[in-house]
Amino acid sequence: MTGLNGTRRPAAPGSSDAAGKRRVRETLLQRVIEEIVSGRFPEGAILPNEAELAERFGVSRTSLREAMQHVVAQGMIRSRTRAGTMVLPRSNWNYLDPLVLDIVLRHTTDPQFYLSLIDARQLLEPAAAAQAAASATEADLQAIAEAYDEMVEANSRDTEEWSAADLKFHTAIIDASGNWVYRQFVTAIRAALLASFRLTNRASQSHEDALRMHRDVVEAIRTRRPDASRHAMQRLIGLARSEIADALPRD
Amino acid sequence: MTGLNGTRRPAAPGSSDAAGKRRVRETLLQRVIEEIVSGRFPEGAILPNEAELAERFGVSRTSLREAMQHVVAQGMIRSRTRAGTMVLPRSNWNYLDPLVLDIVLRHTTDPQFYLSLIDARQLLEPAAAAQAAASATEADLQAIAEAYDEMVEANSRDTEEWSAADLKFHTAIIDASGNWVYRQFVTAIRAALLASFRLTNRASQSHEDALRMHRDVVEAIRTRRPDASRHAMQRLIGLARSEIADALPRD
DNA sequence: GATGTCAATTCATACTACAAATTGTGAACG
DNA sequence: CGTTCACAATTTGTAGTATGAATTGACATC
Questions:
Q1: pLDDT tens digits for B113-168?
Q2: From the CA of A157, how many Å to the C1' of C17?
Q3: CATH T-level assignment (fold) for domain A109-247
Q4: Run of H or E including B142
Q5: Nucleotides of C under 7 A from a protein CB
Q6: pTM attached to this predicted model
Q7: Where is the signal peptide (chains A, B) (predicted)?
Q8: What does the mean pLDDT of chain A come to?
Q9: What stretch of H or E contains B86?
Q10: How far: B84 CA to C25 C1' (Å)?
Q11: Contacts of A181 in chain B (CB under 8 A)
């Protein structure tokens, strides 16, 4: 894997033929979601009928419908015979889907959207760390330590590896919590890290601070101190929060 | 809506023909997910090829594939040419999808699964209540009050209305928090309430206790006291937790 | 003005055909 | 005997077409 990137098609955006023949549905899905998220088809709007959409995107109706089923599964649209396909209210969307979240984040300018994400992290991750300290297995601890080591190594080099190791670190702790609900939010954390790297021109000096805080978390979990783990993680996310807050427009 | 019920087809469970001609995909989807969740096709297993599956379920390959796209969207399977369709590890599944969660809950006997759900509620909902106290709009407050009133009314009658009002109550508070991440969690709460009603033979006397606690939450939010709201919600979920814990096998 | 009937539109399902990709087998060669 | 290369078989991916079913909207009738 190339780090945090989800898709990796060569470079052919909209060319319907050429070497982009394979993976029609994946690119098609992305385009459809993009049209909805971007507001070209706002909530409550009726999409053009399937025949027209298929022609517009240059694919068969079969492929279009398969992609649409994916969008239906995310709660973004709903089709009814004769009535057409309607865009559902955003409150119904599954924002935790990686593709959906990626696209939404690249289209939104609302600072509150990012702040909500950070708030959720600041709630979830300290709790997960505390639980991890209480119940992590040896394998869990090893995975956490390994991720931390990778961050140390990546520190001298550059961002791509650092962010991958960072994600691995937080994911390992959430996994160690053993709570399946917490695990559902890993995609949101991934998105938050991505956004953080997009928004802030992180000085490598701040890596040093971050690294220290990560080490504190590792130590607290390893020595089985739930409260210390919780607080160490709180401080760590607090740093991330302030970085994001600085990069956003003032409230 | 009829309360907590997601689907509402007449009464024909598995009859492949008859009046069940319509909504093939919905029942098909349910059956496919059920086969995977039940362990008939465990993690890592390769499903029969599409032609065979289509025949087995008595549908066309087109319909089967459209249903499969839903399953793909939930991260449960992955198809590759020539290699077949593989069941992905459960860590990859989107458990917050209503259909998936319903089916999983009806198949799991692991008490820890329920406890994790309650833990997550006990983490998220107090935070949401506090945030609601701080930033709810008048419309938000009204929605919460309305849900509470419905619970009062439903108290004398019976369970169906009570549970619907209960869900509405918790949903309204989470909505009032204004945090989109918290909102993603509503399906899990719905599932938790369903499970609670399945597992416990709630005495109507306990409704009185519950009602008082709900009222405390409403009051705390209405009077804009975040900490009081948090604590009131903590007590409320604590009650739910003890009810569930009593109903589960001993640890 | 209200109501019932009918036709047009749109999604839903089915069937068929072919393309693309990957895996496994087997032959050729070192 | 082991390794590598090429080819064939299998399975998913995409396309095209046809038909069914449901709902809406208009029209006619009372």
A1: 999 999 999 999 999 999 999 999 999 999 999 999 999 998 877 778 899 999 99
A2: 53
A3: Four Helix Bundle (Hemerythrin (Met), subunit A) (1.20.120)
A4: helix B138-156
A5: 8-16, 19-23
A6: 0.89
A7: none
A8: 89
A9: strand B84-87
A10: 19
A11: 95, 116-117, 119-120, 185, 188
